[in-house]
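Handout, section 4.2: multi-component inputs.
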Amino acid sequence: MRRGEIVTAFILAALSIYMMWKSTELDIGYATGVGPGGGSWPFWLSAVMLICTGCIAYNWARRSSPPSQSDEPVLDAEGLRMLIQVGGGIIGFVGLTSIISIYGAMALFLFYYVRILGRHSLALSLAITLLTPTIFFFFFEGLMRITLPKGLSFTDPFFNVLYDLIY
Amino acid sequence: MEILGLLSDGLLLALQPINVGMILIGVTIGLFIGAMPGLGSVNGVAILLPITFLVPPESAIIFLAAIYYGAMYGGAISSITLGIPGASTAVATTFDGRPLALQGRASLALVTAALASFVGGTISVILFTLFAPLLASVALSFGPPEIFALMLLAFATFVGLGGDDIPKTVLSICLGLVLASVGFDEISGEPRLVFFDISGFLHGINFLVLAIGVYGIGEMMWTIDTTRGKITTTESRMTLRGAIADAGEFLRRAWRGTAIGSSLGFFVGILPAAGATPGSLMSYGVAKMLARDGNEYGKGHPDGVAAPEAANNSASTGSMLPMLTLGIPGSPTTAILLGGMVIWGLTPGPRLFTDQPEFVWGLIGSFYISNFFALVINLSFIPLFIWMLRMPFTILAPMIFVLSIVGGSAATKDMHDVWLIVIFGLAAFFLRKFDYPLAPAVLAIVLGPIAEPTLRQSLLLSSGDPMIFLNRPIAGPITVIAIILIFMPLLKMVRNRMRQQSEKTA
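Output:
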């Protein structure tokens, strides 16, 4: 945790410097009759962020914050496995949305989570995998008239059948 | 008398079939969300806000407010039966609720929590009805310096009273404000902070993207990591006769905590950024301090359940007061509600009472009705909620992730924003590990679009002189209080050091 805290502070300091630099694309000063320039608000806020990261680093050096006193790992083996399995699953879900539609990606994600990570029965996994996207489809596309990503064109014939049921 | 007339109109509006339906669904969902460990009202409201665009704005906010209410009731269920607070607002309920459950008196704890919540909710709604129009009429005279001073006060409250690491809290606030400024500069019309020149940032960062990322993805991953899915329930059987006997015991042994929680919770809830969690913890502490049998607290005293439960319900209503009258959220949940109101085309603040009286009084009317239904549904379906709590986390968690991604996609209709939700979620997971408070960032991204223009307008009014925030009769005191709150942790630190030094020398 101790090393993790200072690494996080450095990342946030780098982000603050980047945002300060990015803010200077607009005026960061004060112009009479016009008021503060467009970049001044984010610039000075980012500057305060940078100062805060300095304070966090100072507290870290003094070991005054709880994470700076902890010798525990940020993620133990089980935590790291959770992060890869769950975080990776979510990234896969969003990544597949542009290819096989949000409904197809949702079905795959649910099957992966319920069956593979949760180790539930095949019947329950399939029921959740098939029912959830179906309910979501008719709720969003039918009831709320909100169109969600359908992926690449090869999914069109499948969705045309479903649209025929709605309209 | 005028208030009574407006309130009766509001009650009639809230009793329309669509709104009663929204209240029933909202309270039920809220009870479940509140009861689930790792989920609180803020998660429910953030994840479900995108699906409210189907109904009129007044029904949408009634639905979300009902979720808020229901979640306050529901938090007690898991605190008592699982020993894990359903939400941070129910942490103090665990102190005495869990020991009661372990003594086989879960029924008494659950009935006490429900009744105290009802009393707290009802008293706070009455106080709200009396105070809201008064505050709104005063706030009508507010100009940009007063509004910016209030924003400053909201952020200062997080710094002074939040109890978190100060540099991390300030960093979180600034990060939220900077993220709110991404997109186009309103004055020059030029692109601003378009990170890595990715065009998706040109339309700015919707507050929902951050809220869903933090509360839908980050917090769920945090819960999975910390609990490792090992959650066990305490068996609790409830009968009608037993519940009546428990209600009698509530009246005898829990009235003091209920009274303290109801009043204290409301006033703590009004404080910008304070919300229900500090309200419930403070009420527990005060009730214990004032009790003759204070040493019984923590061992299963009904008063120890009643005080925080009455307080968190009361504070949830209290936190709506600054949101509706001043346009400043009193809690992270009301920050998201405020953002929702802006999406629906409503401008929260004092003018809402004069421009949209039907909306405001319909919402106030719905508080009374939600409170009643929350009590009835809570008491009737406690066994069902406990059964549902046994649902494996490996089924519930993917459902929440799916709701977050789909809700974010439906609200923003942009895959760039969906990726941002994931990035914010993962970042929130790690930041939380290092004790970075994230509620201030969510509050700031909501308030940023109000704070920046009011600062600019104020400085234009004064030709760049920042003293405008100190020498106006209303803005001045508010700014001074905000400055005191910002420096309070520093003063405390200096005082503690001086005390330590004097102890050493002694």
